Amino acid sequence: MSERTAPPRTVLLRRGEVHSPADPFATAMVVEHGQVAWVGSEGAADAFTDGVDEVVDLDGALVTPAFTDAHVHTTSTGLALTGLDLSGAPSLEAALALVRRFAADRPADRVLLGHGWDASRWPGGRPPTRAELDEATGGRPLYLSRIDVHSAVVTTALLDLVPEITDRTDGPLTRDAHHTVRAAALGAVTARQRTDAQRAALAHAVSLGIGSVHECGGPQISSEDDLTGLLRLAAEEPGPRVVGYWAEQGEAGVARARELGARGAAGDLFADGAFGSHTAALHEPYADAGHTGTAYLDAVAVAEHVTACTEAGLQAGFHAIGDAAVTAVVEGVRAAAEKVGLARVRAARHRVEHAEMLTPETIAAFAELGLTASVQPAFDALWGGEEGMYAQRLGAERARLLNPFAALLRAGVPLALGSDSPVTPLDPWGTVRAAAFHRTPEHRISVRAAFTAHTRGGWRAVGRDDAGVLVPGAPADYAVWRTGALVVQAPDDRVARWSTDPRSGTPGLPDLTPGSDLPVCLRTVVGGRTVFVRPGE
Description:
Blueprint: E1 11-14, E2 17-18, E3 28-32, E4 35-40, H1 42-45, E5 54-57, E6 62-65, E7 67-72, H2 74-82, E8 84-85, H3 92-105, E9 112-117, H4 130-137, E10 142-146, E11 152-154, H5 156-160, H6 175-187, H7 191-207, E12 210-217, H8 224-236, E13 241-246, H9 250-260, E14 264-265, H10 299-312, E15 315-320, H11 323-340, H12 342-348, E16 351-354, H13 360-369, E17 372-375, H14 377-383, H15 389-394, H16 396-399, H17 405-410, E18 415-417, H18 428-436, H19 447-454, H20 456-460, E19 478-482, E20 486-490, E21 497-499, E22 509-510, E23 520-526, E24 529-533
Parallel strand pairs: 1-5, 2-6, 7-12, 8-9, 9-10, 12-13, 14-15, 15-16, 16-17, 17-18
Antiparallel strand pairs: 1-3, 3-4, 6-19, 10-11, 19-23, 20-21, 20-22, 23-24
């Protein structure tokens, strides 16, 4: 019997801090049959010691629900973890040096794969030319995706493998040309490489206290084999739960999603592109370009897809970043609701990924239509602020409107937090910190609200209201953390006020003030089975 199929052990955890709304002062928890059976005080824990398989002395550690990362590209994450990652390159010259070293270290790779360059953060602000990449690789095929994964630079040798691309203009490839070269590059990855990358990404996730990931696959992003292989790996080996989404449009997409075992025909079904690549669809032109980006779907196409998904009992979902794309999605979902009924659309919990550029009107529409906003706070941490990439692309005034988490919550819009890894790293506590300390103060939400959106919010986004929280009957998906004193944050428009007073009756959370150390994951448990233990613990 494998570890995955063996019955989970009955465990008593005690002498710690258990983050549970069932008891804000809980120090102990019992897990039985893969579920939380009891939470309570240390004195009451004595009654359980003889009836469990294992007693875990927490020694003051914090126990929380495991995180759910609501937007991940698992294979690409694994390839970035094990391959060429340019996200830390401080300049074009440094990036080219990393390419040279990577090419020298990988003489047998048919196609060299890399990710993460961001010319907007480099002196001079320009990406590498094809000639520079040809020289750095010695003329070998190379695919380098920009950090937002909506454009890429490539070598001449890779273009030679894709003869249907006739435009050899230098510069980053976008839209159809990018999708074509990406398919060719990822098609060179062997099944063994893909599985190794997936295994590395899932292992990294659980080492960070992530118990579930939402895989956003699709024909323009990955492949059918990639999704089915990942779902099979997750079912067979200890690790996080994986919920799959397949981003293919219309009735054919619905049928394919169901065939592949996906939760919905959703995820990165592109309504537009991204700000960094000038492909997010805007109502008004970019501040640094004379156009309004790229719209891939209109309201009619959105309505057709939402209707097909709703009638099939599957989730629909769209990637929408710019205000024009968000408007198209809202108008399309509303048209679908007029056809199949608002109650059915709301019950389906359709999703919008990223949802960065919103207005009061589109926020109200999200609430009306029951749309979940699957958002990535690290985007603001990386690109927000007066001097950030958002301000470069949109101007400071429009940039300040982006990622309005507080307004979404005030309107009653469900939030599910994620990373879009490898666009930004898997980093759950860093994600909570980014939401609580948004670069635009009026968009900040409390640590408690952000934590809830990154734990329970991800479960609710897949239709499960009974999970992501440590109460009796909930799935025993939890993480154990070494951290400092727990505090309760009171949100304020100007400052973040903290309290360590236990009389508040609110479960405390780690102090995430910028500059403070983030909690360290000691153990991750999924369905009552331990899937990660930090070495030495």
